[in-house]
Design a protein that fits this description.
By secondary structure, the chain is mainly alpha-helical. The protein is 67% helix and 0% strand. The protein has 2 domains: 1-30; 55-85, no CATH class.
Length: 85
């Protein structure tokens, strides 16, 4: 049992050490200032492309496929997904 107690002590010490390191890394990570991206030349950020019209069109096509009452529900859902791709 002497050997078993020695192994337990080593494992307990390693566990405590890893727990302390984890807490320290978490605290230091939260205290650091966030890194800001460098500014672009010209001083203005590029505007993201507007996809609202494309999304609205895809939604309309999907709803049109769902509204076809001649299809069974499974086929209507598949047609809706295909129309929105």
């Amino acid at each position: 049992t002497s050997n078993g107690g020695n192994v337990f002590g080593i494992l307990a010490g390693a566990t405590i050490l890893l727990l302390v390191l984890s807490v320290t890394a978490t605290v230091l990570g939260r205290r650091r200032a966030p890194v800001s991206l460098p500014a672009l030349p010209g001083g203005t950020a590029p505007t993201p492309p507007v996809a609202g019209a494309d999304l609205a069109r895809a939604a309309e096509l999907g709803l049109a496929e769902m509204g076809d009452l001649s299809r069974d529900p499974r086929a209507a859902i598949i047609a809706c997904y295909l129309a929105m791709e």
